[in-house]
Amino acid sequence: MEAASVRIEILNTGTELLLGSTLNTHGHWMGQELLKMGLRVQRQTTVPDGEAIHEAMRESVMRSDALIVTGGLGPTSDDLTREATAEVLGIEMIEDEQAVRTMREFFRARGYAAMPEGNRKQALVPVGADVLPNANGTAPGIYVPPRLGQASACAIFLLPGPPSELRPMFHEEAAPRLRALAGIEDAGEAVELKFVGIGESSFADGIDEDLQAIEGLEFGYCARLGELDLRLIGGNDAITAARDLVAKSFSKQYVSDDGSSLEEVVVREMASRGLKLATAESCTGGLIANRVTNVPGSSAVLTHGFVTYANEAKVGVLGVKEETLAKVGAVSEEVCREMAEGALAASGSDLAIAVTGIAGPGGGSDEKPIGTVFVGLAQKGKETFVLTKCDPRNRLSFKQQVSQLALDLVRRRVVHGE
Amino acid sequence: MEAASVRIEILNTGTELLLGSTLNTHGHWMGQELLKMGLRVQRQTTVPDGEAIHEAMRESVMRSDALIVTGGLGPTSDDLTREATAEVLGIEMIEDEQAVRTMREFFRARGYAAMPEGNRKQALVPVGADVLPNANGTAPGIYVPPRLGQASACAIFLLPGPPSELRPMFHEEAAPRLRALAGIEDAGEAVELKFVGIGESSFADGIDEDLQAIEGLEFGYCARLGELDLRLIGGNDAITAARDLVAKSFSKQYVSDDGSSLEEVVVREMASRGLKLATAESCTGGLIANRVTNVPGSSAVLTHGFVTYANEAKVGVLGVKEETLAKVGAVSEEVCREMAEGALAASGSDLAIAVTGIAGPGGGSDEKPIGTVFVGLAQKGKETFVLTKCDPRNRLSFKQQVSQLALDLVRRRVVHGE
């Protein structure tokens, strides 16, 4: 079987996952781990504890080569994954002696006099299945090899729900078996390119068709606020062709191919050049500094952040002129320039970025509607550059969008000298 | 139809959700929102972009009364949700003129000369379906009422993938229709109390048993970073009894019962008293100011935010003494006090909050391990108060946790005079 042709599904069980009490991170985590092996998840399903597991499992085993089930291996009455598996496959269950011994040992090591009898059902296994040891909890996992039951050729992994138990078991027990099933010798090719300053429609009108024409290439977009990720999957040649095509059209907007965020790239590029940054924020209210300082090592880059929300702060801290404020208002090209230059002077940094705008919901006018923003970049020995845009969104999206604009101005100056 | 008997499924589309590039939070968020309405999700499925949507949708509409589909409404070739819906239901598609006008307006407002032609397909709608306006993006949503297609009686909602677009549309367009479908007259009795400064174990050790004894009360906890939400569901009497019980035990830690965040409460309480705030942040790097300025109307409260990441910034901007820094280091009670008092003086505000700590992963020592933090509160005419804590977490969790500590100090001072 070729890796790409192995059909894998994930079935997450647990009522708490559907009521919003617990965020389901299994699919996300396993998707990443499987992709590293060149494998892909074809479908992920979440069902509540209880009978719904049977139905979902019956459907999945008909569609897939391998099914990974999480949760429902505990000792209580709503833990029914083991039983559902045996029933769906038409196999008897048997108590695994080794599993009982291991569980007794688990309780003894934690100072219990004896194993609670309720835990005993955790040692039940469909006949012919493998018990997967669990070093981090009581519930052993189970592996049902393909064609063990008459009902399907699908391989089934039953893994415990808690991430601290699931993840080690996945690595140690499930991954090697999946590799063997898929006949994988090394990992496939998958890359994600991150862009800032272009949207999905720039691709749709530009090179989407050309990408489609590349043989053996699979690609997809994921649009975020002020950011676009392009995912490429395929052979080496296909990916190289796609990269070349994209590089020609969008070289300046390209940010990273290793998952690095815009702020990570800004910190890395500035740190490697020994450059220091200061921020002067009005409408973003500290978001830009916050994003930069989310990056480990950012203390080598960011020296000062000024959140000058009030006009007195702009005047007192950054030296914006009262007369400029009176003449053109706080949301203006002139004030933005004075903020950037003031932050540069006050901090002694190499670069200073300034933003002033109207985040809403209040504060807009006909002349300066909500969404109006000025972003300025000051640098020692260079003329200050100010751009303006109007992007009326809700308050938080506006802040995020403006912080993208600002960080991207810094990136383009540092990386491309723009 | 009774609320509890309405079968709801969620179908998330997007290859990025299965490859682990994007964490799927839709199910979690919608599960919570639906539960507030007394509705429950019976199954959640994730499929990649493309043909798999057809198959999954065909299955879901046969099983459910309402299907909520997310993603795949963009302008590119892999956005196929609209088409899949029309095909599964056997309905023609038609261009919605109002939707085209709205999209043109969206691009015009953002300074584009014209709408890219590729976006035009976003205005295609199955005949007879409702267009759901999208104030935060180009992709309109779609609502297909029950029994519109011959293939099923299921109501279908197509919502955009980005959370900033999906969430408002869910509230404004999907929730009222779901309520109508389920015959729900009002939102039912459900209340969520938010606490800061206590954990789940404070409840478990304290009043959990007493809550269990209240007849007709269903309750649950949701622990977040530095925050605990207690969800109460039941009749008026049960909820009142639970509230009284909780108020007796945790009155100082109680933050809100209307979903208001800690920063919203801080802004509201300070604004109503005409109080002004300044922040001086080292290890949180702007997060506190950012959280405060996420709140509409915060410009009435926050005047100055200082992100003094470098020692020179602490000295130059806040007047921290060089000798204090040399003697006890930047992460110390003394420097924290000088930062808070410096921010108070530089800003002229009524209150100033200061934080200095070690976020990691670098910078820890035996004496001051990673996670060490000092939080100081200065107020005109009062003695400055400094607390210290050590909570070694990863960088982002640490920042969040410290910002909670700081904002809660402000809240307790303003609301309780502590």
Automatic annotation (TrEMBL), chains A, B:
It holds the Pfam family CinA. Residues 9-180 form the MoaB/Mog domain. Gene3D superfamilies: CinA-like, MoaB/Mog-like domain. HAMAP family: CinA_B (MF_00226_B). Belongs to the CinA family. This is CinA-like protein. The lineage of its organism: Bacteria, Pseudomonadati, Verrucomicrobiota, Verrucomicrobiia, Verrucomicrobiales.
